[in-house]
Amino acid sequence: MAEFPAYLAVIGHPVAHSLSPAMHLAAYRSLEINACYTGYDVEPERLRDMVNAMRTLHFRGFNVTIPHKTAIMDLLDECTPEALRIGAVNTVYEKDNRLIGDNTDGLGYVASLTHELDVDVKGKRVLILGAGGAARGIADALCLAGIDTLWIVNRHLEKAVHLTEQLTIHHSAPIFALETGKWPDTGIDLLINTTPVGMHGHLSEELPIATDRLNDRMVVSDIVYRPKVTPLLAAAEQAGAKTHGGLGMLVEQGALAFEKWFGVMPPVSVMREAALQEMQKERSS
Ligand code: ATR
């Protein structure tokens, strides 16, 4: 009798440019896993129906992207402590007929920094630009990994203050909100942009700090991966800083999701290559 494949997917709105299908399918091919992974464009008002459909079809799991990462939490049976702390879900897996919401974004970010640059974030002074969902996941994972101090700079200061307060409930590292344009007096080891500034379509917008304080003792990281070298990363290279692009986080969060679904780590280099090829196709089409 033929064995049916495991069903997986990413749901978002829009989802057409997601690199996840290419990444995951490449991993299944490489490990000869019988599974399919596709993208579903789900309008917010259809999210509940979609989750029910996926339950009925016994999906092994799925990824969740913008704008559903928070709204989905109420539609699942349970969320992991990470997802609850972050207030967002990017990965859902099925366990004993229950749908569990998890979040691998922040851990994916830290894994990418470690694997690509061999950087251990323990003891580091970190400045994050932005105070949205991505910042929250990354900040949570950095605090868990034992950073020394965290500063958050955001266009709207009150959002940075709010995030600082929330993080302080769960973590003991000193965390401060800074006004736009301010750099910490003590200097920093790692700067991370989590805003869309620098992304295609947002190129003319301004980061919440000037880049004239970048230097060769810093690691500068941008979670934007279209384009591969953002204006921030270009300025960091000029200043002699080590740079870290956003594709690694995307690949590693996907690899950690894969591990939840199949119980083994996938070949991360295969997933990364597939994502790069997909981006190449976009550029030439
Ligand atoms: P994500 O889940 O990707 O983090 P988000 O929750 O919408 O998305 O958060 C986006 C972050 O980028 C926010 O911190 C936002 O700043 P505000 O809170 O002030 O809105 C920041 N951001 C978005 N566009 C920006 C811009 N043009 N300049 C500076 N910051 C920007």
Describe this structure in words.
The protein contains nine helices and twelve strands. It folds into two domains: 6-103 and 251-284, 3-Layer(aba) Sandwich (Rossmann fold); 106-245, Rossmann fold, CATH 3.40.50. α4 crosses α8. The protein has 285 residues and is of the alpha/beta class. 2'-monophosphoadenosine-5'-diphosphate is lined by residues 130-135, 154-156, 159, 194-197, 205, 208. The site of 2'-monophosphoadenosine-5'-diphosphate has 16 residues, from α5.
List keywords for this structure.
285 residues; alpha/beta; Rossmann fold; six-stranded parallel β-sheet; 9 helices; binds 2'-monophosphoadenosine-5'-diphosphate
What topology does this entry show?
Layout: E1 6-12, H1 20-31, E2 35-41, H2 47-56, E3 61-64, E4 78-79, H3 81-86, E5 91-95, E6 98-102, H4 105-117, E7 125-129, H5 133-144, E8 149-153, H6 157-170, E9 175-178, E10 190-193, E11 219-222, H7 231-238, E12 242-244, H8 247-262, H9 268-284
Parallel strand pairs: 1-2, 1-3, 4-6, 7-8, 7-10, 8-9, 10-11, 11-12
Antiparallel strand pairs: 3-5, 5-6
Helix pairs in contact: 1-9, 4-5, 4-8, 8-9
